[in-house]
Amino acid sequence: MKMKTNLKNILAKLQAPLAKTELIGASTPSLVTGSENGNPRRDFMKKTLGGVALGGFMFSPIEDTLAESTKNVNRFGAPSDLKITDVRVAYIRDAPMNVPLIRIDTNQGLVGWGEVRDGGSPRYALFLKSRLLGENPCNVEKLFKKIKQFGFHGRQAGGVCGIEMALWDLAGKAYNVPAYQLLGGKYRDEVRIYADTDKSTDPQVFAKRMKERADKGITFLKMDFGVEMVKDIPGALVVPRNFDWGKAYSQTEHPFTAIQITDKGLDEMVKYVAAVREAVGTDIPLAADHFGHISVNSCIRLGRALEKYQLAWLEDMVPWKYTELWKQITTAIETPTLTGEDIYLKEEFIKLIDAYAVDMIHPDLASSGGLLETKKIGDYAEEKGIPMAMHFAGSPISFMANVHCAAATQNFIALEHHSIDVPWWEDLVKGIEKPILMKNGFVKVPNTPGLGVEVNEEEVKKHLIDGEKYFAPTTEWDKERSWDRLWS
Ligand SMILES: [Mg+2]
Asked: How far is the CA of 62 from the centre of ligand 1 (A)?
């Protein structure tokens, strides 16, 4: 009896200074998925309690008893001592895009998850490894500034943004708070999802697919339809003779194809929208994308023809970089316009926003600069009265990064979900309430530390690209070096 009382006193004394100095909230041992040097919890207990002789006065292992009695204490050591020790990738396929997942390891056993934008090369992330080793991942903005010169528009941004996601995951885990909290807190507990839908050349089939989405609870729809759908209808388009509809078309920017849409073509395209609107009704926003590579004048003609169906937005009618062309389209039609999924960093968004060249912006967080930069973009647009929808087509890792950013950004409208038809997509992660996409068409913002999901090794291994390994060593990237300073 006396021994038990003594133990209680000792534990109380040990616990008090720990609780004061070592943080907040419930412990999350499940977040620790590996340690180079054994169990990080025990390593930390030994480190923190190093001067105390623990072994001599217990019936059961003292560390287990202490672990139980101090379970409300963060066990991952002082976040200020956290250091990046490794960066690895696992490249998955058909999700429905190919996506390189990123894993950042640390000296305290904490693991951070991120991903290169869908379709981007894993090398975009691995190239950054030598710039990150030994750095404290909690200094997210500092590290972002260090690596952001290695990103560019489109997929080339994927490495920088994917690393940034993993840094927030680590910072959140180190301080035991969800990523949205580190961004300033949340405006909403659930994030609205909008669903993209594959097109069909048959308007009725297309309408049925859209209706199925709405019936499943999705509250915001997007349809793809473009001039390619009517190209075989005589008289629908004016096209230069012997036009190459293959690679040449897909790689030629909109103003430079010389394709024009006729009145007949407009009628045919309008049929698709009319069929979909009739099927889903008017109580659901309906956006549209992929109109084809046509001139600004044809974009305006098409926009005007569609006005009576009150679409939520017309997306990427011309490339994002043509601010003045966007301004022409936006001024000429009354349906909202939107672009931005390939823009890297806030500066190019600011140009579009300042010019009121589009009615809405549409960053893809895996291209736009990650969570914090995308929040900055959203905040800037908000001050100008412009809403932000979010483009997305990756794995649940990047998806949850989007969810945190969407929760923390006031002018957010809806986040894209591109994988509703991929049955194993949610299985790629664990540690989160399922289904992630709820029946009401929203996603709950998780309150667990970091991004709030862990990679599910078993499932990810089933979907690796042929020849790719599960987070294989990447020592060949340890010593990549150059004189990176951008000024002299
Ligand atoms: Mg798009």
From this structure: 57
